[in-house]
Design a protein that fits this description.
The structure holds 2 protein chains of 2 kinds. By secondary structure, chain A is an alpha/beta fold. Chain A has 2 domains: 160 residues, 3-Layer(aba) Sandwich (Rossmann fold), CATH 3.40.50.300; 67 residues, no CATH class. Helices cover 40% and strands 24% of the residues of chain A. Chain A has 10 helices and 10 strands. In chain A, strands 6-7-8-3-9-10 form a 6-stranded mixed beta sheet, sandwiched between helices. In chain A, strands 2-1-4-5 form a 4-stranded antiparallel beta sheet. In chain A, strand 4 and strand 5 form a beta hairpin. Chain B is mainly alpha-helical. In chain B, 78% of the residues lie in helices and 0% in strands. Chain B contains 21 helices and no strands. Classes of the chains: A alpha/beta, B mainly alpha.
Chain lengths: 252, 577
Amino acid sequence: MIRLEGLTKTYGSFTAVDGIDLDVPKGGLFGLLGPNGAGKTSSLRMIAGILRPDAGRVLVDGFDIVEDPYRAKARLGYIPDRPFVYEKLTGRELLRFCAALYGQEGEEIEERILELLQLWDLDRWGDELVETYSHGMRQKLIISSALVHRPRALVIDEPMVGLDPKAAKLLKDLLRAFADSGGTALISTHTLEFAEALCDRLAVINEGRIVAYGTMDELRASAESDDRGLEEIFLRLTGGESQAELLRVLAG
Amino acid sequence: MSVDARSFAAPDPIPAGRAILVLLRPKLLSALGRSAKGRTIGSRIPLLAGSALLAFVFLFIVGTRLLSALREVPDVGPLLASKLLGLALLLFLGILLLSNLIAALSSFFLAKDLGLVHEAPVDWLGVYGARLLETLGSSSWMVLLMLAPVVAVYQSVYGGDAFFYLIAVVTLVPYLIIPAAIGSAITLVLVRVFPARRTRDILAFVSVIAGALLVVGLRVLRPERLVNPEGFRNLVDFLALLRGPSSLWLPSEWLAQSLTGYLDGAFDPFWLWLSWSTAAALVALGAGLHRWLYEQCYTRAQEGTESGQRGDRLWRLFGAMLRPLGLARRELVLKDARIFFRDATQWSQLLVLGVLLFVYVYNIRVLPVQTSETLSRFLVAMVVFLNLALAGFILAAVAARFVFPAYSLEGRTLWLLRSSPLDPATFVWSKYWSGAVPILVLALALTVLTNWILGVAPMVMTLSVVSIIALTLALVAQALAWGVTMPRFETANAAQIPTSLGGMLFMLTSLLSLAAVIAGQFWAMRGYVYSGLPWRETRDPTGIELLSAFAITITVTAVAGFFPYRIARRRVARGAG
């Protein structure tokens, strides 16, 4: 569903994403793991069409995000890690606006908006300005904005940030149901338990390159760590020096 | 490895005096840091310093001449000079109070670093002191810049010694502290009554209204009458009327008494003592109020919400009117309109535009073009060109304020547009026309009204209207192009965005376009303009003259608008910023 070919992004002399090749198959949940600054967010922003790659290409359902952005983007829903939205719109107006960006309006969309607001317990906040929403409520609104046009694939950057346990459980169920109905989700996350429990396949990115790819069993094999949890595998693949440094700092 | 919790033993609270320094340090360092990196302030320092110096010299020369003339008026001269200082200081005091109200709201309640400050073991007095100084600094620097030439003019005209400047500094400090303490206290009480965001809107509205009334008031006084004896007498009468109720309760009067007393050789330290003791008492009272109310007000400011959006029916109606534009364009325009009219700091600028329109039309109305029967035709023709130049300049300034920041204001929400299948051309179209339509209304109002007042020939009126429409369309395209090319995503305040380098470059290119149009028109119409001179035979403009003027206008504005619009489209498509 999503295919990356030699995807590269540089900021000045720093290479954030270094020629990534990745194939996210249709249907299922795909986790993208990596330490801070590994290149996850840059990759996701290029897939969503927000950043322009310096080299390589992104194909969404066979459509190039740069060459044929309208058809590629129409199939995607993007959820960023930080919920920046128009503060002076109400929740309902924002969702209506998002649907319009995908060329959708009318009764069906109004029903869809109501359904999404009710799903996240936001229905009584629907006519309040977004500036009055808490961080978690904004995150719920952004998730709704990515779902309002019924995308075929979701690109999600840190989905659990700001969500309460009930909303986090709801999101997990929602993503599972989305995948079971044939949808595809590419999820970047730091929450290893979330990735381990939910994702069908995983890729680990470090210093802009994919260092491991596959199912949990395949990752265990590539990290040469039998029966280890994802945390151990992750640290082995990405280096545990930073953890040791953190402990030294805390110990004073 | 284990973590030793004892190494994290809680430190003692930082005493107030040190806390003030600690809390102010990051603000100073970030200002200096910006300067050192040359991103914002640093690169503009020579330009700003040069402009400030020029303004100082200009004000000093004009002020010195005006004050010297005033002092020479028999009998009432010295009184008028003293009264003028009192009035200026009273005006500045009003500005200071309003500015402190708004700055206090930001520094005490809305600043992003407040959470960090409140969770640190900092003494409450330290927080009050640091935030009061921050409020004072951000509100007073502009007034200080304006006061500097005033002080210099009085010193020069009265022949005061260098010690006068020391007296000025010592008396100015409490003059600045008093409105800061009062403004902070009023803000505290306002937030106790209203949510902080609502208070910000109310203050923005009040300050715009106050500013507008001030501008209208000053203009209607017609200070230009000072240049002729008749008008001068009227102003003397006006000032004489104000002679009676000089309030000794106002700090501006205390400062005026100190300064003029010193210059007249009758310095009374009572005024100095009164200023300082009042400032100290107000700071102490403000600190007490802060201790009593601040915690609950700060909590309330975090909770403050606005409930229930009204006017839904109006928005539906507006949406229905925009239906022919198609879904994406309609929603983009609706979105921009909603954001604009729900933000008091934005829509209140419309009042400023209204005032601008009034003052401009009033200026044209009181122009003495009809004073000489023989010269009036020539003068009217010249004023038509001058009118186009000034109206064009106003429109450029309005475009800089409203269209130039449009792309930057999308800022952190651009991800929503870029990740959607929205055509960048549609986005640019909606930004362009959202800005162009209101500015066109203003442009037409300015041109038609002023030309009607001047009584110009119908064909000249037509030329003016076509010119201003074409110019507006070109200027809006330029503002958009510069705004997309040099965006300022990190600045949330729309009013600050045009002060960037991109904003200045836009003003430069827009003035060049304006100059090209006016020069071209003048060249085409020169025969008609000179026919208004008393020794020439008067005539109407010929068809060739008018056609040439139209052709030049359309060609120049088409080039000045088409290419910037294309640049804006291309850069948005590439993901500018």
